[in-house]
């Protein structure tokens, strides 16, 4: 049974990872096509996003793996044959719980160590690409900057990576509150970054600058050999949010946000074990019920469980719930439900009811 459960879990995990990777790629490719990201960062961002998504994929994949395997065993009457041969629930449950514990260890390592590093890497990459103005500009199409106040267009890119035949239009409010318009044309544009202020500037060579107010004829025309135009705000620094912090830093830090974050990370492996235990009684179905009869019920339990953990963690992070109580009571409640279903399957409640009637 362990081998079959492992195969089913691997298939489910592969399908879910393929879907999440596809969604991430489509989003990042769309951003790259719009010129918001350099093309060479798409695969890296998608890979880091997949590592973060494993925290969601692994719990639901274990749940579905157990449900589908038990459904197949019940449909083919193999479960009935096991019990007829003298196998107890412990024998039947052991392979599934072993798989759940192995996956929980993997998920714990990802949630506690790999996911924060992936989050830090994504922020660092985002901070670096935010300053790559030249690389992210696509020749032959207009781009806007400065919250829509600046428009940029370049005809082509030369062999050195510089943009050629550049057009820039910038609209700003003057000192008297009236808008002023600046139009710049240049033969070439190249990027320059100020390491102190982290501001990105396009250095324009061999061009003209026209400045004035719309509707008036007093425009000024200036020819230049070199001119700089700011096209991007200062690059964002890595935020330092609790999502990017390592576990030792979180444990050493006071405050409800740090407590909520590390409790959320620890909840991933805990939820895997509890969901596997919950799936065992749910997954046992009559032979004619079909393999997928209880999958919807299992997914419903998963959605309620995961959302409850998330909502409680948010409450802890905002200080509305004490960190000592935290998300632990949610895990305890779901674990009690799982144990109750297992006891019901073993007939504990029925025997107690018969003794009470006697």
TrEMBL record:
InterPro entries tied to this protein: LptF (IPR030922), LptG/LptF_permease (IPR005495)
Major subcellular location class: membrane
Keyword entries, A-Z: Cell inner membrane, Cell membrane, Membrane, Transmembrane, Transmembrane helix, Transport
Membrane-protein topology: Multi-pass membrane protein
Keyword Zinc-finger on entry: no
Bilayer-crossing regions: 95-115, 295-317, 323-343
Assigned protein family: Belongs to the LptF/LptG family.
Assembly information from the UniProt record: Component of the lipopolysaccharide transport and assembly complex. The LptBFG transporter is composed of two ATP-binding proteins (LptB) and two transmembrane proteins (LptF and LptG).
Functional note: Part of the ABC transporter complex LptBFG involved in the translocation of lipopolysaccharide (LPS) from the inner membrane to the outer membrane.
Protein name per its UniProtKB record: Lipopolysaccharide export system permease protein LptF
Native organism: Salinisphaera orenii MK-B5
């Amino acid at each position: 049974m362990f081998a079959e459960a492992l195969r089913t879990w691997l298939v489910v995990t592969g399908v879910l990872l393929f879907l999440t990777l596809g969604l991430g790629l489509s989003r990042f490719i769309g951003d790259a096509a719009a010129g918001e990201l350099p093309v060479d960062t798409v695969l890296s961002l998608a890979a880091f996003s997949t590592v973060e998504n494993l925290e969601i994929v692994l719990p639901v994949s274990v749940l579905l793996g157990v449900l589908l395997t038990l459904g197949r065993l019940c449909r083919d009457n193999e479960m009935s044959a096991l019990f007829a041969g003298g196998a107890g629930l412990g024998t039947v449950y052991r392979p599934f719980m072993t798989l759940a514990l192995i996956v929980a260890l993997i998920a714990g390592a990802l949630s506690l160590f790999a996911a924060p590093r992936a989050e830090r890497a994504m922020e660092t990459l985002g901070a670096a690409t935010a300053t790559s103005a030249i690389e992210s500009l696509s020749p032959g199409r207009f781009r806007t900057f400065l919250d829509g106040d600046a428009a940029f267009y370049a005809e082509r890119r030369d062999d050195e990576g510089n943009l050629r035949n550049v057009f820039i239009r910038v609209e700003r409010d003057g000192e008297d509150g009236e808008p002023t318009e600046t139009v710049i044309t240049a033969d070439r544009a190249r990027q320059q970054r100020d390491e102190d202020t982290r501001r990105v500037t396009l250095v324009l060579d061999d061009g003209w600058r026209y400045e004035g107010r719309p509707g008036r004829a007093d425009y000024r025309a200036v020819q230049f050999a070199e001119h700089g135009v700011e096209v991007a705000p200062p690059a964002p620094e890595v935020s330092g949010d609790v999502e990017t912090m390592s576990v030792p830093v979180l444990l050493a830090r006071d405050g409800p946000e740090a407590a909520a974050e590390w409790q959320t990370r620890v909840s991933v492996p805990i939820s895997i074990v509890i969901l596997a235990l919950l799936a065992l009684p749910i997954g046992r179905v009559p032979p004619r019920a079909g393999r997928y009869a209880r999958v919807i019920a299992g997914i419903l339990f998963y959605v309620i469980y995961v959302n409850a953990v998330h909502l409680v963690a948010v409450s802890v992070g905002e200080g509305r719930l004490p960190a000592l109580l935290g998300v632990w009571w949610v895990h305890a409640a779901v674990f009690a439900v799982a144990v109750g279903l297992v006891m019901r399957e073993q007939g504990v409640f029925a025997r107690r009811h018969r003794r009470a009637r006697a």
